[in-house]
Write a structure and sequence with these properties.
Blueprint (H helix, E strand, L loop, with lengths): L3 H18 L3 H16 L4 H6 L11 H13 L3 H9 L2 H5 L8 H11 L4 H9 L11 H15 L6 E2 H16 L4 E6 L1 H4 L4 E2 L2 E7 L2 H8 L9 E6 L4 H9 L2 H14 L8 H7 L15 H7 L14 E5 L10 H10 L4 E7 L11 H15 L5 E9 L10 H4 L4 E5 L8 H13 L4 E3 L17 H9 L3 E6 L9 H9 L4 E4 L11 H10 L13 H8 L6
Parallel strand pairs: 4-5, 6-7, 7-8, 8-9, 9-10, 10-11, 11-12
Antiparallel strand pairs: 1-3, 2-4
Length: about 550
C-alpha cells in the first residue's frame, strides 16, 4: 500500500520516464497533471479509491485512476515497472540535459560503448564525446557538468509553504521556552528565497541555558534547524547576522569599519541608522546593490505588500484544470474582501489541461454573468492563452478582443533553442492586444530550469509593447526570478502579482507572489492589481475601448 505522497512521486516518475523517452508528450503531461491534482487533494484518497470515484477529481481519467488504485492497494504499478524497463538507466540519469534525447544517448552508447555514468564521464574527460556525430565540444562540456553536479551531496530543499509551516511550528515552540522574550525566523527563509535547505531562528532570552535546553526538545521539522539564543541586548545584531545574506552582512561590516561604529544596536533599524542607511528590508539583503542604493536614496521605500493588492489575478476553475467552480472561487474572493477576480482558464490548444473551445468559453461567460449577481467581488472574464510555437496567441483576435484580461503563457515546446524561443516570445509580446506575460520563463523550482532565451531582448519587447509581466505566486513557479524582475523594473515595465490559483486554498499563493515582487524591488505603484477595479480593467483591457 502506498500513501498519497508516495503515489504523487510515482506519477511524477512516470511523467519523467515518458518525457525522457521523447514519446507521447500528452501522456507525460497527463501524469504530471494527475500528480498535481493528488498533491492538492483535500479529500480522503482511500475512500475515493474504494468508492471508485477517482475520476471525479479534475485531471484524473480512467487510466490514471487505475494506476492510482493499484499503487494505493499494492504499493506498485505494472505500467510504471514496464516504463522503467523501457528507458535505459543512462537515459534516466542524463534527463534534464537540453536536446539530449534517447536517440543521442543511443548514439553515444553505440559509438563509445558507454553503459554507466562513470563510463560517460571518462569519455567526456578524454574528449571522445565531441567526436560523436551530433555532439560537439559544448554538448560534451554540458554532459560533464551535469554528471559532476549529480555527484555533489544535495541537502533536501523545501519550497516556501513547507518551510514557512515548519518554521512557524518551531517558532511557536520556542516562544513557550523558559526565559524566551523574542523569537524570529532568520536565514534564507526570512529573506523569502524560493527554497531553503535549513531553518534558522534567533531567540532573545534572559535564561539562555534553560531556553536552549527547551529548544532541543522541539518537534522535528524535516529540515536541519539552527537556533541562536542570545541576551536581549545582543538580539538585534544576532538577528541581522543570522538573516544574511553573508555577502550583505560583510558589506555592512566593511562600512562599519570605515565609519568607526560597531555593528550593533537595540534594533536592526538602529544598526542601519548608525551606518547612515535607512532600514533595508530582509528580502533585499543579497548584496546586489541594495547598500549602494540605500546610500544614494535610490532604495525603494514603498515595496508592495499583500494589503496593497485589490484583486486576485490568474485563477482557474473546473472549466479547465481547476478544482472549484466559478461560484466557489468568487465567493472565496468575496469573503477575503477582494475587489475583483479574473477567471482565466486555459485556452483551446491546451487540451492537456482541459482548454476551452470558443463555445465553452462563451458558456463560461454566461456563468460568470449569473454568478456576478450573487457576489460583490467584480468578476472579469479572461483566458490563460497559450503562446503558440510561432508566437501567436490562442483564440482568434475577435475572441481575444471580447475578454477583459489575457494571460499569455508558454506550456509546450519548452526546449526550443535560445534564438527560436526569443523570436517566439518577442512576437507574442509585439502583438497589439494587451497581454500579461504569464510565468514567463516556465521554471518549476527544484524540477525544471527556465526556458532558454535572451531574456533582456524579450523584456525590451515587453517595454515597447502593450504588455505587463506576471509575478506568479504558485510556490512551484515564482516566475520571473527576482533578478529579472529588477531588469524589467529598470525598463519601466508594469507588473501583476498573481495567484495562479487552481483551487480556493491557492488564493493564498498571493503571499508568495508578493514575496518575489519585494525581492525584485517592486513598489506598490508598479503593480497593476493594486489599482481599483475600474482602473485595473482599463489598464489590462486587450483593446482600447472608448
Amino acid at each position: 500500500m502506498a500513501d498519497r505522497l508516495g503515489i504523487v512521486r510515482a506519477l511524477r516518475e512516470m511523467a519523467t520516464l515518458l518525457e525522457v523517452a521523447g514519446q507521447e508528450p500528452f501522456r507525460a503531461r497527463a501524469y504530471a497533471r494527475g500528480a498535481e491534482a493528488l498533491e492538492r487533494l483535500d479529500a480522503d484518497l482511500g475512500r475515493l479509491v474504494e468508492d471508485r470515484r477517482l475520476t471525479e477529481i479534475s485531471g484524473i481519467g480512467p487510466g490514471l485512476a487505475g494506476m492510482i488504485s493499484e499503487l494505493y492497494r499494492t504499493g506498485r504499478s505494472d505500467v510504471l515497472e514496464e516504463q522503467r524497463r523501457r528507458v535505459p538507466p543512462l537515459a534516466q540519469a542524463l534527463h534534464g540535459i537540453p536536446r539530449l534525447g534517447l536517440a543521442k544517448i543511443a548514439a553515444l552508447q553505440d559509438a563509445l560503448g558507454v553503459e554507466t555514468i562513470e563510463d560517460l564521464e571518462a569519455a567526456c574527460e578524454a574528449g571522445r564525446v565531441r567526436a560523436v556525430k551530433g555532439m560537439g565540444e559544448k554538448t560534451e562540456r554540458v554532459i560533464l557538468e551535469h554528471i559532476r553536479r549529480r555527484r555533489e551531496p544535495e541537502a533536501r530543499r523545501a519550497l516556501l509553504p513547507e518551510a514557512l509551516a515548519a518554521a512557524q511550528t518551531m517558532r511557536a515552540h520556542l516562544r513557550g521556552a523558559p526565559g524566551a522574550q523574542e523569537v524570529e525566523v532568520a536565514g534564507d527563509l526570512r529573506r523569502l528565497t524560493e527554497s531553503v535547505d535549513s531553518l534558522s531562528l534567533v531567540v532573545a532570552s534572559d535564561s539562555q541555558v534553560d531556553t536552549m535546553n527547551d529548544a532541543r526538545q522541539a518537534p522535528a521539522t524535516g529540515l536541519p534547524v539552527s537556533v541562536s539564543v542570545v541576551p536581549r541586548a545582543a538580539y538585534a545584531t544576532a538577528l541581522l547576522r543570522a538573516t544574511g545574506s553573508a555577502a550583505h552582512v560583510q558589506h555592512l561590516e566593511r562600512l562599519a569599519r570605515r565609519r568607526g561604529v560597531p555593528l550593533e544596536g537595540e534594533s536592526e533599524a538602529e544598526i542601519y541608522h548608525r551606518l547612515g542607511l535607512p532600514f533595508i528590508p530582509p528580502e533585499l539583503r543579497e548584496d546586489e546593490g541594495e547598500v549602494e542604493a540605500a546610500m544614494t536614496g535610490a532604495l525603494p521605500t514603498d515595496l508592495v505588500t499583500e494589503a496593497d493588492i485589490r484583486g486576485f489575478v490568474h485563477c482557474h476553475t473546473v472549466y479547465s484544470d481547476g478544482r472549484h467552480t466559478v461560484a466557489q472561487m468568487a465567493k472565496a474572493a468575496d469573503a477575503l474582501g477582494m475587489e475583483y477576480l479574473t477567471i482565466t482558464d486555459h485556452s483551446m490548444s491546451a487540451a492537456y489541461a482541459g482548454g476551452l473551445s470558443v463555445d465553452r468559453l462563451e458558456a463560461q461567460w454566461e456563468e460568470i454573468a449569473r454568478v456576478q449577481e450573487t457576489v460583490a467581488v467584480r468578476l472579469l472574464r479572461g483566458t490563460e492563452s497559450d503562446i503558440l510555437a510561432d508566437g501567436g496567441l490562442d483564440y482568434p483576435d475577435a475572441v481575444l478582443e471580447r475578454l477583459d484580461v489575457i494571460i499569455a503563457s508558454i506550456h509546450r515546446r519548452h526546449r526550443m533553442d535560445a534564438s527560436q524561443m526569443t523570436q517566439r516570445l518577442v512576437r507574442a509580446m509585439e502583438l497589439p492586444v494587451f497581454k500579461i506575460w504569464g510565468h514567463a520563463l516556465g521554471r518549476l523550482i527544484l524540477s525544471r530550469p527556465p526556458v532558454e532565451c535572451r531574456v533582456e531582448e524579450v523584456l525590451d519587447a515587453v517595454a515597447a509593447s502593450r504588455a505587463a509581466v506576471e509575478i506568479n505566486g504558485d510556490p512551484k513557479r515564482l516566475d520571473l526570478a527576482p533578478r529579472w524582475l529588477r531588469a524589467a523594473r529598470e525598463r519601466g515595465i508594469r507588473f501583476v502579482v498573481s495567484t495562479d490559483a487552481h483551487a480556493v486554498a491557492e488564493l493564498a499563493n498571493l503571499q508568495y507572489g508578493v514575496a518575489m515582487a519585494r525581492r525584485g524591488w517592486i513598489g506598490r505603484d508598479e503593480v497593476l492589481n493594486t489599482l481599483p477595479a475600474d482602473a485595473f480593467v482599463r489598464a489590462v483591457a486587450p483593446v482600447t475601448r472608448a
